[in-house]
Specification:
This protein is mainly β. It is about 10% helix and about 40% strand. It has a single domain, classed as Lipocalin (Beta Barrel). It comes from Acinetobacter cumulans.
């Protein structure tokens, strides 16, 4: 059966709120990043998808022409320090396209409307993120195990799927033998012979619910998302049968969150006085204002 037929057999999540604030749930595209040296980048393609307990992240200089050794994508556990109000991520070595963590600082966040401002504690940068989705399906599936069908051997891999309406993020790490190869080289200066194995770590983003519009893996550009060959194991686990490089593999996913119709945050609370101010001054303040994604 396909994924959506399988979901029809599952109950919606009873626990929706998680270890992180709900306003972080969804699919965010970065509008800009400004640095302490006075420079600002508004062109790099950056997406942050947030499920209840994990994140999928993709960063490309351009849709199709980012050099293989400069692509960034990862999947990791999301950690929230309630006392310090800081967000951070636990990204394993095999859960990252690159061989090192590119963003070591935690995030100090501030939400206004559909905007999340992310400040680095060192003040070296501030990022402006915009929520891309309003409502409908919210699904997070996290890979818990992978099995080689022929040998029945477990495969140490990581991956996940996050669906927010028509925005979809999919991540799947390299096969273990490929990961061992990549871990032993310097990606930044790797010879061309390593290109295919390096980019076999896939992070792909769909904006139409169907096709991989942005991806770390060249062969997956504009390909359809694979929602086929799923089966329900129990109320919180789905299994998918896939073929990777001719190898039959069973992927066991755990349901992180499943809400058939979820309303993602686009508005934030403010004071009565400021609401009155905005209303009274709207002819000037809102004359050119639009929802900016």
């Amino acid at each position: 059966m396909n994924l959506f037929q399988a979901l029809a057999q599952l109950p919606a999540s009873q626990e929706v709120s998680g270890p992180i604030p709900d306003y972080l749930y969804g699919a965010f595209r970065r509008k800009s990043i400004s640095f302490s040296n006075g420079l600002t980048d508004e062109k790099t393609i950056v997406y942050w998808f947030q499920s209840r307990s994990f994140t999928i992240d993709l960063r490309l200089k351009s849709q199709e022409n980012t050099p293989v050794n400069e692509r960034q994508g990862w999947i990791g556990n999301t950690l929230w320090d309630a006392e310090q109000q800081l967000l951070s991520w636990d990204v394993k070595a095999h859960s990252n396209y690159q061989n090192h963590v590119q963003w070591p600082e935690p995030a100090k966040l501030h939400a206004i409307g559909n905007c999340i401002l992310e400040f680095s504690p060192s003040n070296v940068y501030v990022e402006d993120w915009r929520q891309q989705v309003h409502e409908r399906l919210f699904l997070g599936l996290r890979l818990k195990s992978a099995l080689d069908v022929e040998s029945h051997q477990p495969l140490p891999m990581d991956g996940g799927l996050i669906i927010c309406d028509k925005y979809v993020a999919f991540a799947l790490s390299r096969l273990p033998t490929d990961q061992q190869t990549v871990a032993s080289i310097d990606i930044s200066s790797a010879p061309t012979m390593y290109k295919t194995v390096i980019e076999s770590f896939e992070v792909s983003i769909a904006v139409d619910g169907l096709h991989k519009h942005y991806t770390t893996t060249s062969s997956q550009q504009d390909q359809s998302l694979n929602f086929d060959h799923f089966e329900v194991i129990d109320e919180t686990h789905l299994m998918q049968n896939v073929i990777i490089n001719g190898q039959a593999i069973q992927l066991m996913f755990e349901v992180d969150i499943y809400v058939p119709h979820y309303a993602f945050q686009h508005h934030t609370d403010t004071t009565t006085e400021s609401t009155d101010w905005l209303r009274n001054e709207k002819q000037h303040l809102l004359h050119h204002a639009i929802e900016c994604l």
